[in-house]
Design goal:
By secondary structure, the chain is mainly α. The chain contains 24 helices and 3 strands. It has a 3-stranded mixed beta sheet, with helices on both faces.
Length: 472
């Protein structure tokens, strides 16, 4: 079943594509219809709505993996002139998509369907190329007014999806019925260009470029056996025999590369698998995988079983399965966080805190470890220590909203109301909610537990954010 998000994105692209045969060439002055800054702003606006959807994967380890692979690809692209952000959605359809402004979404089923990391990277490289070639902006340039109206429809439909998916689908149908009439998300010319550049990016980044035609060919063949018709990726990224042949021709002269999958690829897939199904179904899946030894990576399979058991709250089996994981696992931050979370589920809080502390020394930049360690320090009435951990990380990433949320918790434990509201303001700002950020700053000033410097800095921040909010 297609997600509401897919409907929104395909509606946006399809509507903007009316008359797409006359798309401007790269560098054409008509691109000024949507500047890169405006494009980023549109993307951020849509992302605020996407983050509120139930399927949004708010997991630091999954997100960091996607961005690690994504920026490995972006770093070798000669056309990348903007920031990129990669994120995941829990969805059973095989799909990935690009939003205005460099935001690239990945469905969990895409990672689970990819038979190698190079195949997954092939899809990401294709989406990166859509962004670097500004295909979405060019669509909007083709029909500016209709494209902007479509973006408004997207926002309305996403809001409706929060409470009533059927109403969201209805909103799309009503707003864009004519535009949706048998239109595809990208033209064949767009797809050829994204394939051509994607293959180049894939090879330069050290992945196997032959993975792209292999993945496309397997997806197309799958349409013959799927009752529901083509996978979502084929509906939003039209695949023809000619397109596959074209990609095969582009990779024909390139040497095959034996590129081993990273342990992160295997662990992230196992983590998503443990969440893709009902937790108890996931336990059965991993039990069968391990029992029949059908896994491609034993550590990832055992990790997935431990994650599924924890989510299913099957505590009786957890100690034995955790011990099995410890015996075969290499030192890795994702395995450290899994161990600590399992110990917490078993009520062994002090032991979990020690695991996190040791992990911080070994992997000091791993976001999930930092979050979990700070959280447990606060829970252990050690909020001052938590603040030190949080502030150290903030020096490297001052826009991390989760850090500000944790800092607000720490200040609340310490009874510092003014600082708590100031931190909450920055958390809201990081999420793109300017009005709530200003409101929190005003609430901060209603408390009298801050010094003159703190009060002055909050007043200055209110003036700064209010000026931004007043801009048209």
């Amino acid at each position: 079943m297609r997600t509401i998000l897919f409907l929104l994105l395909s509606a946006f692209a399809s509507h903007a594509l009316a008359g797409a045969d006359d798309l401007p060439e790269l560098g054409d002055a008509s691109q000024s219809a949507l500047s890169p800054a405006q494009e980023r702003g549109v993307g951020e606006s849509i992302m605020r709505q996407i983050r509120a959807l139930p399927g949004f994967v708010d997991d630091a380890e999954v997100t960091d993996y996607l961005n690690d692979v994504g920026y490995r690809l972006v770093s070798v692209s000669t056309d990348a002139r903007q920031d990129f952000s990669f994120f995941a959605l829990m969805d059973n359809s095989v799909n990935a998509f690009a939003l205005p402004g460099g935001f690239i979404g990945v469905h969990s089923a895409l990672l689970l369907t990819s038979q190698s990391e190079s195949e997954f990277a092939a899809v990401l490289s294709h989406e990166v190329a859509h962004v670097t070639q500004r295909h979405i902006a060019r669509m909007i340039a083709a029909q500016q007014r209709q494209g902007l109206a479509s973006m408004a429809a997207i926002a309305i439909a996403i809001l409706a999806a929060r409470s009533n998916p059927q109403a969201a689908a209805g909103a799309i149908a009503a707003a864009q019925a004519q535009a949706l009439s048998e239109r595809l998300a990208f033209t064949r010319a767009n797809e050829r260009e994204a394939d051509r550049i994607g293959v180049q990016i894939l090879e330069k980044a050290g992945f196997d470029p032959h993975a792209m035609p292999v993945f496309l060919d397997r997806l197309q063949k799958a349409t013959k056996v799927l009752e529901s018709g083509a996978p979502t990726y084929l509906r939003t990224h039209p695949v023809t025999f000619e397109r596959i042949a074209d990609v095969q021709n582009r990779t024909f002269g390139l040497a095959y590369k034996q590129v081993p999958d990273s342990i992160e690829f295997q662990l992230v897939r196992a983590k998503l698998r443990s969440r893709q199904k009902d937790p108890r179904e996931a336990v059965v899946f991993f039990d069968d995988l391990i029992g029949e030894r059908k896994f491609s990576n034993e550590v990832a399979a055992q990790y997935g079983l431990v994650e599924a058991l924890r989510l299913a709250k099957m505590e009786r089996r957890l100690p034995a399965e955790l011990e099995k994981l410890r015996k075969i696992a290499p030192r890795h931050p994702m395995l450290t966080t899994a161990e600590a979370r399992t110990l917490l589920a078993l009520g062994r809080k002090q032991e979990a805190l020690e695991v996190l502390k040791a992990g911080m020394k070994e992997f000091p930049t791993h976001r999930a470890l930092i979050y979990d360690y700070a959280e447990q320090l606060i829970a252990s009435k050690r909020a001052e220590e938590a603040n030190v951990v949080i502030e150290n990380r903030m020096q490297k990433d001052p826009n991390d909203g989760r850090l500000y949320e944790l800092q607000a918790k720490a200040y609340s434990e310490l009874g510092k109301a003014m600082l708590k509201h100031r931190s909450l303001a920055e958390a809201y700002l990081a999420a793109g909610n300017l009005p709530l950020a200003i409101e929190q700053l005003k609430l901060a000033l209603k408390n009298n537990d801050g010094d003159f410097y703190t009060v002055s800095s909050i007043e200055a921040r209110i003036r700064e954010l209010s000026a931004i909010a007043a801009k048209p």
